[in-house]
From TrEMBL, chain A:
InterPro entries, sorted: SoxG, TrmE/GcvT-like
Pfam families xrefs: SoxG
Protein name: Sarcosine oxidase subunit gamma
Domain of life: Bacteria
Species whose genome carries this gene: Starkeya nomas
TrEMBL record, chain B:
A UniProt-annotated Pfam family: DAO
Domain of life: Bacteria
Entry cofactors: FMN; FAD
UniProt entry keywords in alphabetical sequence: Cytoplasm, FAD, Flavoprotein, FMN, Nucleotide-binding, Oxidoreductase
Keyword Cytoplasm applies: yes
Catalytic activity: sarcosine + O2 + H2O = formaldehyde + glycine + H2O2; sarcosine + (6S)-5,6,7,8-tetrahydrofolate + O2 = (6R)-5,10-methylene-5,6,7,8-tetrahydrofolate + glycine + H2O2
EC category name: oxidoreductase
Organism: Ancylobacter moscoviensis
Entry protein name: Sarcosine oxidase subunit beta
Domain Rhodanese residues, every copy: 34-78
UniProtKB/TrEMBL annotation, chain C:
Molecular function (Gene Ontology), one example: sarcosine oxidase activity
Gene name linked to the record: soxD_1
EC number: 1.5.3.1
Organism: Starkeya nomas
GO BP field: tetrahydrofolate metabolic process
Keywords (A to Z) from UniProt: Oxidoreductase
UniProt keyword Oxidoreductase present: yes
Protein name per Swiss-Prot or TrEMBL: Sarcosine oxidase subunit delta
Coiled-coil stretches: none
From TrEMBL, chain D:
NCBIfam families: soxA
Domain annotation GCVT N-terminal: ranges: 606-878
Listed InterPro entries: 2Fe-2S-bd_N (IPR042204), BFD-like_2Fe2S-bd_dom_sf (IPR041854), FAD/NAD-bd_sf (IPR036188), GcvT/YgfZ/DmdA (IPR028896), GcvT/YgfZ_C (IPR029043), GcvT_C (IPR013977), GCVT_N (IPR006222), Sarcosine_oxidase_asu (IPR006277)
Species name: Ancylobacter moscoviensis
UniProt-recorded name of the protein: Sarcosine oxidase subunit alpha family protein
Keywords: Oxidoreductase
Residues annotated as domain SoxA A3: 507-590
């Protein structure tokens, strides 16, 4: 479909890119060392655990014992080895694993009837953002205080960026991870490019021009 | 003094020395046949028609601030009769007819301007919904036209047809719809009512009701008690607050609706356009300001002001529809308190308390209703029976299930 | 306007969707005979009538773009000042 | 061809003489310097006539040196970047700048509509309300078009704005608004505590009046001191100094709106930079240090080019090194204006005379003036002016009248604190007699005011107050405050005699320069009873122009007060509303325009469908394949007919991933579903699905869909695409608010699962080829409405549902979304031999209409289950949401429109959705309206158009003929009422 044709192609990093395709990998915007790096992946294994009535505390305890993660009753990402557990609501945890193919099954085994577990690994695309200008870029979308002074490594938020629901957490000094609904990958990537172009943005993704 | 070209000429020559107050700033008398609470368009129109049509002249309009300080003075001035449901459409069409002769009747130029309102559609389903509406309008004797994209483009070539996220497919046009100068409507009715003997009492807030044996027989005000044969409420956004003093709970929530005006410009758009894929509608005032608005802010409020998310939403809609307005500037933003009813349609009815009459629940659409609302409310007050075109606006319809829900969103006022 | 979500922290109101009066209680259909018109009356009042106060208002906000919790907020409708918030599942008094 | 900038001083000022810039105004080329505004550069080049006024088209010049400018509005830039009504006084000069005057035709010098001037006696306040009424039809045809063309000021661009905009959010502990002396100190005091501070100033140069006045602070020139503080602030990591940023509004909970002009000082924005950025600044505390605005005195002829605010004269001389005129006189009522004029004189301006309404002026000032050879006319006032551009001024002195030959008249009637933001939450300013000005009253929570904005006009006071409030704000937030050494500056005495209007002056005396509201107009308003300030404003338009009456509101109300005899505080002010200065719509929209207006959602098979040649359609946020045209097909109808025929005769597939999917788990899941659906689900067998209908509490249908039971405590619900979020929210409401005792956990799995429907007599054979060996899809293994979990495509987890929307044998296959496209490919391969056909939403719609299923058009929110023929599904054995209200008389009235089918009596007719129904012979009027057609389709099966609709007592009228009335499409013909199922009413196909 047509691009934003009225825009000056020299200044519009999205010129010529169809809005209904995931923009291709490459460098966007200002030249030089990119201020923002973006890489996307479908994190292979994600599952949601929701504590059943009255079991929130023991779910936290079971997850601690099984995964070695310390969970807090607030939006927070506990990262332990290849596993990350992100609190998204009271008694609700998104578990991400790099290595556990039957993550949901494992969690069911760990949590028994104390939690409802659903697979979510296909529901999200993971955006890994890194670079000195990431907070500035995210400030163009989120109305959450992501200033590195107050949003510490491990802090998480489920919020909305540019009309798109996002769960994000800070993974390192200058790195952040964002989960975005799969169907919105193209739209979200467009937002990142439009907003990150002034810092220079490097996008690495599957580059297929679309998912699936 | 009758206004005319001659009166202007004469005053131009004599240094503007002959003008008289457009209405008397009356002090409240101890008693009236009818006391109307609320000096907005509806209250003043009601007083005018009570005097004019029903011969009831001993009437006071009690206004807590200055007349027109409520929603009458802060709306986006759109008048139209493009409603859908049988309970509504004939009423609004009657209002449209009254608008068409209003200025000559009132001897006041309210700048009723039938420059057409175009509701855009962006999908087949929306087109069919507009066809349904357009046909309902025709059934009520109103005008309507279903335009395709080519016809819309001929009217407004600068809309974003080609690059839009939700391409414009066409629109429903009502030619006879348009705008009216909101303040002038208030002043015109006030002046005409005053001429017929109605007292307009400003800076007088109704703070309670006088009761005798369960009946309401007057009002308490910040300027003393006033007795009345009948008390009629037309306080729009304050309906719940005032009704509460009579012990009533209403099917109404008060919400804020914002509106915006741009800096003055040479003509940009002629008629009124509403965006069908977002919350944005726009017209241009005779002074040149683009007057636009969108959705209500969405939470109960009496603050008469709103917040940024809705402003942004409206601007996004505006840019999506008319990307040429990017460099135009928003000059002023304000809010009004909307009496959002539970089905999105108004109430003109006797209250459950004898002696009290209700005119409320106009949501964001009561400006266009001003003449018919006044007409029908006066009819109800004078004759104690509803006027035919307002027969559906009963208070008990929520109990009986005869709802008039144009949008089909149910009992959630912030979605109407 | 910023709503203090008890779980997420303070968030902009546009992340929430608003439902209104949180003091209303859904009538218990079992408490009255189903044929009883009193039940219909109670539902009528529940579904349609509102105090709509100018002042403190206890109201429901759903944190749709956040934790998806229903939050009970006490807010002054005259100036939008928020006195407190609690999660629906917590019995807590909001103010 | 650049002319010399003849009014430029050789030295001084805050311009960069090493950076000359050229620019054009009305086609002529001129020269300026970096540090100039367009206004200062025009004045430097001797350009004094800049625009035409709104109503009378009077020639106007430059009146101020800031955001309050009422006169010098220009069209900046050209073509798609044209910016009408741009105040020349705040435009930062850049090389190549192009500006044109506006509201004149054919040229600025010769403007035809300036005849309005001569009609002005008749065009007084409100004249248009009194005429143009006869004949009625002339209003739209004649009067109004003329008025509209004459009104307005600049012209909007005709093309789409080519620049990029964006929005951003910043959080801080202390926001300081304004970087004059008060703001700089506030930011410094707060910044040194370690608090996160934002200091925003609309100017490109921090310093405020320090840049415009000859003052010393800490032994440095004021401007140098400002630069010094700004440098320290810039070096603090916890402080963000934002210049070119106007804080335009105070919103709730400490949210402030601000506009950053990122690229407006450049010919075009720098590559990949936005033109402007909208900031939402969320501040725990804020200090308003926005300064004050000078106001004029009103007198006849006060609008001629050359009449200028006294402070502006000072600004041009000191900051821009420009002499606004050769021969300057001052007309004032206060000491400050004298001091400014003396400083300007020292800097090189020729001040001829000072005219002061006061009889007594401080001897020191008089002495100082005389020392600079300036005539002093005390107890005097200006009563007339002459010249197209100001030439002479008539002054009434105690000794009689005299005429001064001057080209510039500086005016000062005192200063009005910039209280605007304090009023944005409804606070009203209060009158301060000592300075004859309104000062802040109740401010928004968390906002305090310092400096001139607070009515503290002395420089020393500004510095002290700023420091105190900055420190106080940080301290209140718990930051430890180190001592701050505030520069001691003496506070000059502020002496003023309130004076508003030279009532005995000659010629039009303008109160509101931009809207051409005169003192006489205020008088008319008074006579006609428009005496409240709000009526005065609305009747005369005083204060409603682009400057929002910055320099006119107080004088206007003071004149009204003098007419009514009320005091100024009794008279009161109108309300200040955001924005503080106008904000572009582009910035408020940011990234969200064009295709990015709203995010697009793509299905898992989007790319695949595109390869199949799909035409896509927007369904809410989603793009879905609408149909798949093939070469040679002449229109969509031919394509859709082919797709439907293929399904009905063989097999087709469609992506239905857009449906909402909700996972429900827990021991109470079944009884929960019983409460939200009208029909029962707790007794549903594991491995089965059921169609369910959900109501709102008011008894209307909210949504429908199938819910399957996958395990004893595990259900999966589907919702319509449109209502997915709404239903999820509703379920959460029921669980969290209504029935927190129920133990059910829900999760959205809409994105997790791709879902593809296959339908048609061959669909089972196709399915059999994609499922793994152990999955039994036989009629027994997977009977109608069966739901099983299994694997497909060699190990991919799947959920198989035997459901049918089309009326054919059909299945929905859900796989993890990443496998969606592969599943589509696999199904295509498996079905190749049957000619499997991808179909889109159109064909889906046709088939559901043939089958008589309700869908979005029927679920309008205005229909009850009974209306849709679904009443019998409602259980009578349980309570559920909406049950009680659905029983109201109005909703069970048998005369309500009911759901039926239609076919044209003349079979060749095309039906249209939206047509209304009338009984045969009934007059077309609302009273006879019997319902409407909700959905139509061309039925390939029947070979003619068919429709569904809601008709009064419809189900009782099967076989009857009614009229389909569709005047908006110019059609009206008879249709026959029939049962809604047009195909296989017994349902044999889907059970086969
Ligand atoms: C931003 C905005 C845009 C709108 N746009 C449109 C539009 O384009 N078209 C349209 O048709 N409608 C529109 N409306 C709606 C329309 O303005 C209102 O429905 C209509 O004006 C209400 O009737 P009214 O004029 O009588 O109310 P108001 O003018 O609000 O009159 C009620 C009066 O009652 C007074 N009052 C309240 N309490 C008391 C008391 N206790 N004692 C004495 N007096 C009291 C108030 O001060 C007020 O003056 C809009 C409204 C807003 C706010
Ligand atoms: N003696 C007098 O009569 C008199 C009167 C008024 C002012 N003054 C002088 O003015 C100075 C007052 O200092 P001050 O710091 O209070 O005011 P200031 O006028 O020096 O500074 C105000 C600053 O705020 C900025 N600003 C205003 N509104 C803004 C907004 N909404 N967003 C962003 N920026 C905004 C302006 O650009 C300006 O830089 C002193 O030097 C004082 O002597 C004197
Ligand atoms: C149709 C319409 C046009 C308006 N045009 C202007 C305008 O050109 N300039 C202006 O300052 N305000 C304009 N306003 C806004 C008013 O100044 C004012 O904000 C509004 O009537 C609400 O009143 P309030 O702000 O006093 O509460 C307009 C209002 C309306 C309803
Ligand atoms: Zn939350």
């Amino acid at each position: 479909m047509a691009d934003r044709s009225s825009h000056d192609p020299l200044h519009d990093p999205l010129a010529g890119i169809a809005f209904d395709r995931v923009p291709p990998a490459g460098a966007y915007g200002a030249a030089g060392e990119p201020g923002v790096g973006v890489s996307t992946a479908e994190e292979p294994f994600i599952a949601l655990a929701v504590a059943r009535q009255g079991h929130a505390a023991s779910v936290v305890e079971r997850l601690r014992r099984a995964l070695g993660v310390e969970l807090a009753d607030r939006p927070h990402a506990a990262i332990e080895g290849g596993t990350t557990v992100v609190g998204t609501a009271p008694g609700r945890f998104l578990v991400l694993s790099r290595s556990e193919p039957d993550l949901a099954g494992t969690l069911r085994a760990v949590l028994g009837t104390e939690a409802a577990v659903t697979e979510q690994g296909d529901g999200y695309v993971t955006f890994d953002l890194s670079g000195p200008r990431v907070p500035d870029l995210l400030a163009k979308g989120a109305l959450v205080d992501l200033d590195p002074l107050v949003f510490r490594v491990g802090d998480a938020a489920t919020t909305v960026i540019a009309h798109i629901g996002v769960t994000l957490w800070r993974t390192g000094e200058t790195s952040y991870r964002l989960l975005v609904a799969r169907s919105l990958e193209a739209a979200f990537t467009r937002f990142l490019i439009a907003s990150g172009a002034e810092y220079g943005l490097r996008l690495e993704n599957q580059g297929s021009g679309g998912r699936g | 003094m009758r206004y005319s070209f001659l009166s202007i000429l004469a005053n131009g020559l004599n240094g503007q020395s002959d003008w008289k107050p457009a209405w008397r700033d009356a002090a409240p008398k101890p008693s009236y046949d009818v006391v109307i609470v609320g000096g907005g368009g509806h209250g003043l129109a009601t007083a005018y028609y009570l005097a004019k049509v029903h011969g009831i002249h001993n009437v006071a309009v009690i206004e807590k601030g200055y007349i027109g300080s409520g929603n009458a003075g802060r709306n986006t001035t759109i008048i139209r009769s493009n409603y859908l449901l049988p309970g509504n459409e004939p009423f609004y069409e009657w209002s449209m007819k009254l608008w068409e002769g209003l200025e000559q009747e009132l001897n006041y130029n309210a700048m009723v301007s039938q420059r057409g309102i175009l509701n855009l559609y962006h999908s087949d389903a929306q087109r069919d919904a507009y066809a349904r509406r357009g046909n309902a309008m025709r059934l009520a004797g109103a005008d309507s036209e279903l335009l395709d994209k080519r016809q819309v483009r001929a009217m407004y070539p600068f809309l974003d047809f080609d690059n839009a996220r939700f391409p414009i497919q066409g629109g429903l046009l009502q030619h006879r719809a348009g705008t009216a100068r909101h303040d002038a409507v208030v002043w015109g009715y006030a002046r005409a009512a005053d001429t017929l003997g109605v007292d307009i009492v400003q800076n007088c807030e109704v703070t309670g009701f006088l009761r005798e044996g369960g009946n309401i027989v007057g009002v308490e005000t910040t300027r003393g008690a006033i007795r009345a044969g009948k008390v009629a409420l037309a306080v729009a956004g304050s309906s719940s607050r005032v009704a509460e003093k009579a012990g009533l709970r209403l099917p109404i929530e008060s919400h804020v609706l914002q509106a915006f005006v741009s800096e003055g410009l040479k003509p940009v758009i002629d008629g009124v356009i509403t965006f069908g894929a977002g919350h944005f509608y726009i017209s241009q005032s005779d002074k040149g300001g683009l007057v636009f608005g969108g959705d209500i802010d969405g939470y109960n409020s009496y603050a008469q002001r709103g917040n940024l998310p809705v402003i942004e939403d409206v601007a996004e809609g505006g840019m999506a529809l008319m990307p040429r307005i990017g460099r135009l500037r928003l000059l002023r933003m304000w809010g009004g308190i909307m009496d959002m009813s539970m089905d999105g349609s108004p109430i003109i009815d006797r209250a459950p308390v004898p002696g009290l009459y209700l005119n409320a629940g106009w949501c964001y659409g009561g400006f266009k209703a001003t003449p018919a609302s006044g007409w029908c409310f006066a009819h109800l007050i004078a004759r104690d029976e509803p006027h035919a075109v307002a027969g559906a606006y009963r208070l008990d319809r929520f109990r009986s299930g005869h709802l008039i829900d144009e949008k089909g969103v149910g009992a959630q006022p912030n979605l109407h | 306007m910023r709503i203090p979500c008890p779980y997420c922290g303070e968030r902009d109101a546009h992340e929430f969707s608003y439902l209104g009066d949180a003091t209303l209680v859904r009538p218990d259909p079992a408490a009255v005979d189903a044929q009883d018109s009193a039940l219909a009356d109670r539902f009528h009042d529940y579904v349609y009538l509102r105090d709509n106060p100018a002042g403190a208002h206890r109201e429901w906000w759903y944190h749709a773009n956040g934790c998806r919790q229903w939050v009970r907020v006490t807010r002054d409708t005259r100036n939008h000042a928020i006195a407190g918030a609690s999660l629906a599942r917590e019995p807590g008094d909001a103010a | 061809m650049s002319r010399p900038d003849k009014n430029r001083l050789a030295s001084g000022g805050l311009i960069d003489r090493a950076a000359p810039l050229s620019f054009r105004f009305d086609g002529h080329s001129y020269r300026g310097y970096a540090g100039d505004t367009l206004a200062s550069a025009l004045l430097a080049n001797g350009v004094r006539l800049v625009g035409r006024s709104f109503k009378y088209h009077r020639p106007r010049g430059i009146f101020s040196a800031g955001a309050e400018e009422p006169n010098a509005l220009v069209e900046l830039r050209s073509g798609a970047r044209r910016e009408p009504n741009t105040r020349a006084t705040v435009v930062e000069l850049f090389d190549g700048l192009e500006a044109t005057s506006q509201n004149r035709w054919p040229s600025l010098g010769l403007d035809v509509l300036s005849v309005n001037r001569f009609l002005s006696p008749f065009l007084g306040a409100g004249f248009y309300y009194k005429t143009f009424m006869w004949p009625a039809s002339f209003w739209e045809k004649l009067y109004e078009p003329f008025i509209r063309r004459a009104a307005g000021l600049g012209r909007a661009a005709e093309e789409a704005d080519p620049d990029h905009y964006e929005k951003a959010t910043a959080f801080c502990d202390v926001l300081v608004i304004g970087a004059g002396p008060a703001g700089l100190m506030a930011a410094l005091a707060a910044g040194r505590t370690g608090a996160r501070v934002i200091l925003a100033d609309e100017d490109f140069l921090p310093g405020g009046r320090l840049n415009a006045e000859r003052r010393e602070v800490h032994g440095r020139a004021g401007a140098a001191y400002a630069a010094h503080v700004a440098a320290e602030l810039a070096s603090l990591p916890n402080v963000r100094l934002m210049t070119r940023t106007t804080v335009f509004g105070a919103y709730d909970s400490g949210t402030y709106g601000a506009l950053e002009r990122v690229g407006d000082h450049l010919p075009v924005p720098a590559p990949f930079q936005p033109r402007q950025r909208l900031w939402r600044i969320i501040a725990r505390r804020a200090v308003l240090a926005a300064g004050a605005t000078e106001r004029p005195i009103v007198f006849g002829g006060n609008d001629r080019p050359g009449v200028m605010l006294a402070g502006a004269v000072g600004t041009y001389v000191q900051r821009h090194a420009v002499l606004p005129g050769r021969h300057i006189a001052l007309f004032a009522n206060n000491d400050d204006a004298w001091r400014g004029m003396l400083a300007a004189s020292e800097a090189g301006a020729r001040v001829e005379a000072i005219i002061d309404v006061r009889e007594e002026v401080s001897p020191a000032l008089v002495e100082a003036a005389r020392a600079r050879d300036i005539r002093v006319l005390a107890g005097s006032r200006v009563i007339a002016t002459q010249g197209r551009k100001l030439r002479t001024v008539d002054v009434a002195t105690p000794r009689g009248r005299e005429q001064l030959v001057v080209d510039t008249l500086a005016v000062s009637g005192g200063w009005s604190p910039a209280v605007h933001l304090t009023c944005h939450h409804g606070g009203r300013p209060v009158w301060n007699e000592a300075i004859a000005a309104f000062v802040p009253g109740a401010s928004p929570a968390g906002l305090t005011v310092a400096g001139a904005a607070n009515g503290s006009f002395g420089l020393g006071a500004a510095l002290r107050e700023g420091a105190a409030q900055g420190a106080e704000a940080a301290e209140a937030l718990g930051f430890p405050v180190p001592p701050l050494d505030v520069p001691a500056v003496e506070d000059e005495a502020f002496a003023l005699q309130p004076f508003w209007h030279v009532a005995d002056s000659k010629g039009a005396a303008f109160v509101d320069l931009q809207n051409d509201v005169t003192a006489k107009d205020v008088g008319i308003a008074h006579k006609e009873g428009f005496r409240s300030v709000e009526h005065l404003k609305r009747y005369t338009t005083l204060g409603m122009a682009t400057d929002q009456g910055r320099t006119s509101n107080v004088t206007g109300l003071a004149i009204m007060a003098s007419l009514t005899g009320a005091s100024i505080p009794e008279t009161g002010t109108t309300i200040f509303r955001p924005p503080y200065t106008p904000v572009s719509l582009g910035a408020l929209a940011g990234h969200h325009r064009g295709k990015d207006f709203r995010p697009v959602r793509l299905t898992p098979t989007h790319e695949w469908a595109a390869r199949q040649g799909a035409v896509f359609v927007e369904t809410g946020a989603w793009l879905r394949a609408q149909y798949f045209p093939r070469k040679g097909e002449k229109d969509w109808l031919e394509t859709v007919t082919r797709e439907v025929t293929a399904v009905r005769s063989s097999v087709g597939l469609i992506d239905v991933s857009t449906f909402g999917k909700i996972d429900l788990q827990g021991p109470d899941a079944g009884s929960f579903l019983d409460r939200v659906y009208i029909n029962g689900f707790s007794a549903l067998a594991v491995g089965k699905a059921r169609y369910g209908v959900m109501l709102r509490e008011d008894g209307m249908v909210m949504d429908d869909g199938t819910t399957a039971r996958l395990g004893p405590e595990h259900y999966v619900m589907t919702t319509t695409t449109a209502n997915a979020a709404k239903v999820y929210q509703h379920l959460e409401f029921c669980l969290q608010v209504l029935w927190p005792e129920l133990d059910v956990a829900i999760a959205s799995i809409s994105e997790q699962w791709a879902q593809i429907a296959i339908a048609g007599p061959r669909s089972r054979e196709v399915l059999a080829r994609v499922v793994d060996a152990d999955v039994d899809v036989s009629n027994e293994g997977l009977p109608f409405i069966g739901a099983v979990e299994g694997r497909v495509m060699g190990g991919v987890k799947a959920r198989l549902f035997r459901l049918s929307f089309s009326g054919e044998l059909g299945y929905e296959i859900a796989v993890p979304a990443r496998h969606g496209a592969a599943l589509a490919e696999a199904l295509m391969a498996a079905g190749e031999e049957f000619g499997i056909t991808p179909y889109g939403t159109e064909a889906l719609g046709v088939m559901r209409i043939e089958k008589g299923h309700v869908s979005g058009n029927e679920l309008s929110g205005q229909t009850a289950a009974r209306d849709l023929g679904l009443g019998r599904m409602a259980s009578t054995k349980k309570d559920y949401i909406g049950r009680v209200m659905a029983g109201r008389p109005g909703l069970v009235d048998p005369a309500r429109p009911g759901f039926v089918g239609f076919r044209p009596v003349e079979r060749a007719r095309r039906l249209r959705a939206g047509a209304h129904f009338l009984s045969l012979g009934a007059k077309p009027e609302t009273a006879n309206d019997e319902g409407y057609m909700t959905s139509v389709a061309y039925s390939p099966h029947l070979g003619h158009w068919i429709g569904l609709g809601l008709l009064v007592r419809g189900p009782e009228r099967i076989g009857e003929r009614v009229r389909a009335y569709d005047p908006v499409r110019g059609e009206e013909f008879e249709v026959e009422v029939c049962a809604p199922g047009f195909i296989d009413p017994e349902g044999e196909r889907l059970r086969g």
